[in-house]
Amino acid sequence: MITAEKVVFSPEELARMEIRNFVNEGLKDVQEGNLYNFDEVFDDIESRYKDAGL
Asked: What is the pTM of this model?
């Protein structure tokens, strides 16, 4: 009988994998043209915090 060993990643390795996945997903979005208009997004975010008194 063959048993599989459990792979344990360090927190640093997990962070690297998470960052790599985030970047790869972003690159895929760029390739597929799934992008937001920067000005529209910025205006939307700005309007949320305009009256926050910050």
From this structure: 0.58
Q: How far apart are CA 8 and CA 15, in angstroms?
A: 13
What are the DSSP calls for 8-33, one per residue?
A: ---HHHHHHHHHHHHHHHHHHHHHHT
| Planar angle of CA 30, 34, 36, nearest 5 degrees | 100
Residues 23-43 pLDDT 10s: 999 999 999 999 999 999 999
CA atoms within 13 A on the CB side of 22: 6
Backbone angles phi, psi at 34, to 5 degrees: -85, 75
Closest by CA to 45, choosing from 33, 17, 9, 36, is 36
* C-alpha Rg value of the chain to the nearest Å: 20
